[in-house]
Design a protein that fits this description.
By secondary structure, this protein is of the alpha+beta class. It has 2 domains: 2-93; 112-342, BirA Bifunctional Protein, domain 2, CATH 3.30.930.10. The protein has 11 helices and 9 strands. Strands 1-4-5-9-8-7-6 form a 7-stranded mixed sheet, sandwiched between helices. It has a two-stranded antiparallel sheet with strand order 2-3. The protein starts with a helix and ends with a helix. It binds 3,4-dihydroxyphenylalanine. 3,4-dihydroxyphenylalanine (DAH) binds at residues 173, 175, 215, 253, 256, 287-289, 310-312.
């Protein structure tokens, strides 16, 4: 009996000390199991009580229960202490330093090509033009035949055009949308059509096998060259400055008659001659003309009643002129240092 009491006392003391010293919740739980668990040291001690005399059993039982209660309290205390310590450590680890500079978020911005297209859309939309889009893969018919560029037209050459087969190609111009619209709609027609076009060109400072155009088409009763000139003169002033003059030079396109190229007075030198206008004082900015009657007839439009004008804008060319970019390839390299200059 005395021996057992001594062991109980030793166990109690050692248990309380261990619990005080334990450094983690896991260790505290392991200790609890080691002492109070089913096969724990104190549990075993309680089991061996049955070998004692009845009166000894009562006295030892009391002592053992007391010890058990103190150990349980010790476990609870240790766990509370460790829980608190863990919380503190977590708070410390998750502390936010509000004085640290924030991470910069970089909102996107439009690429120059997109920005130029969007500005052009805005300009023409304000005058009632609608946007018509066409697919980049189109028929030889829409890209050439319907636009009065017959089988022997030089622009159909294999060296300029990406053919997919005899009747399908990557469109070389957004003018193909003219053919699509004229074939399906009756006047009044007033549209612009931005999009990608493709030509078999080796990339250099002014060429790319893929670039962007914006087509314009107006067909209605009483449309004359004066309408064409008025609209495009306004567009040039919108792009380059309201004080600049424009002029129209005769040119040839298969789908317009008469055809012209429009020049704007050099926005850099005002017409005196400089490196931008190559000394001429003028800068060519687009092609245009009165829609050829063959094109209207192809779509079943009455050419006695209706006339129209069309124009084609090279998007990269406009962007390069406006922002003084001397190499077209810069627009496609996606070098953020270049692109972000034009935010
Ligand atoms: N499609 C022509 C080209 O790629 C540009 C053009 C010129 C379009 C005159 C037109 C136009 O609609 O009238 O060079």
């Amino acid at each position: 009996m005395d021996n057992m009491k001594d062991r109980l006392k030793a166990l109690l003391e050692q248990s309380l000390r261990s619990l005080e010293e334990t450094g983690s919740l896991e260790d505290a739980e392991a200790l609890r199991i080691k002492i109070l668990g089913k096969k724990g040291e104190l549990t075993e001690m309680l089991k061996s009580m049955k070998d004692l005399l009845p009166e000894e059993r009562k006295e030892f039982g009391q002592a053992a229960n007391e010890a058990k209660a103190r150990i349980e309290a010790g476990v609870a205390e240790a766990k509370a202490r460790l829980e608190e310590a863990r919380k503190k450590a977590r708070f410390l680890a998750e502390t936010i330093d509000v004085t640290e500079p924030g991470r910069e978020s970089l909102p996107g911005f439009k690429h120059l090509v997109t920005a130029t297209i969007d500005e052009t859309i805005e300009f023409f939309s304000s005058m009632g033009y609608v946007i018509a889009e066409g697919p980049e893969i189109d028929t030889v018919h829409n890209n050439f035949d319907a636009l009065n560029a017959g089988p022997n037209h030089p622009s159909r050459d294999m060296t300029d055009t990406f053919y997919i087969n005899d009747s399908v190609l990557l469109r070389t111009q957004t003018s193909d949308v003219q053919a699509r619209i004229i074939a399906t709609q009756q006047p009044p027609i007033r549209l612009i059509s931005p999009g990608r076009v493709f030509r078999c060109d080796t990339p250099d400072a002014t060429h790319s096998p893929m670039f962007h155009q914006i087509e314009g088409l107006v067909v209605d009763e009483g449309i004359t060259m004066a309408d064409l000139k008025g609209v495009l003169d306004r567009y040039a002033k919108f792009l380059f400055g309201s004080s600049l003059g424009t002029k129209f030079r005769p040119h040839h396109f298969p789908f317009t008659e008469p055809s012209a190229e429009m020049d704007v007075e050099c926005f850099k030198c005002g017409g005196k001659g400089c490196n931008v206008c190559k000394g001429s004082g003028w800068i060519e900015i687009l092609g245009c003309g009165m829609v050829h009657p063959n094109v209207l007839r192809e779509g079943g439009i009455d050419t006695e009643r209706y006339t129209g004008f069309a124009f084609g804008i090279g998007v990269e060319r406009i962007a390069m002129l406006r922002y003084g970019i001397d190499d077209m390839r810069l627009l496609y390299e996606n070098d953020i240092r270049f692109i972000s200059q034009f935010k």
